[in-house]
Specification:
11% helix; 125 residues; 2 helices; Ubiquitin-like (UB roll); two-stranded antiparallel sheet
Length: 125
């Protein structure tokens, strides 16, 4: 069976979560082998939190789960794209649909290019 090569990157591979309908990039996270296997088993995104150093079931705390529609792997077998259905409308812990909600400009301050879906202070107590 085709599987990511976790040995290439010290056990963690980058994962891009992309909306399966709009194709908007929602976030980038990392998976270890356990997170990958849990994602396959449950059809919901599981990642490895580098800051907390533990398995992370996306949405377990916020309710903003990611239902996996398709899993794509690159030619080097060290990067994954998850095409997902984002439950709750927000992938970002800051309350935005996408973690990529700010646009950088060469000649002015960054701008917010997305609407906030929820207040993180109310969701993460």
């Amino acid at each position: 069976m085709l599987q990511p090569n976790f040995e290439k990157c010290d056990g963690l591979i980058p994962v891009i979560a992309q909306d399966y309908l709009t194709k908007n990039v929602l976030m980038l996270a990392y998976m270890n082998k356990e997170a990958f296997e849990k994602t396959l088993e449950t059809k919901q995104a599981h990642y490895y939190s580098r800051s907390r150093k533990k398995l992370w079931h996306k949405g377990a705390e916020s309710g903003n789960f990611q239902n996996v529609k398709q899993i794509l792997i690159d030619c080097d077998e060290d990067t994954i794209v998850l095409l997902i259905e984002q439950i709750g409308g927000a992938a970002c812990h800051t309350g935005y649909n996408s973690c990529f909600y700010r646009e950088i400009h060469a000649d002015k301050e960054p701008t917010i290019c997305s609407d906030k879906i929820f207040n993180p202070d109310e969701v993460y107590k």
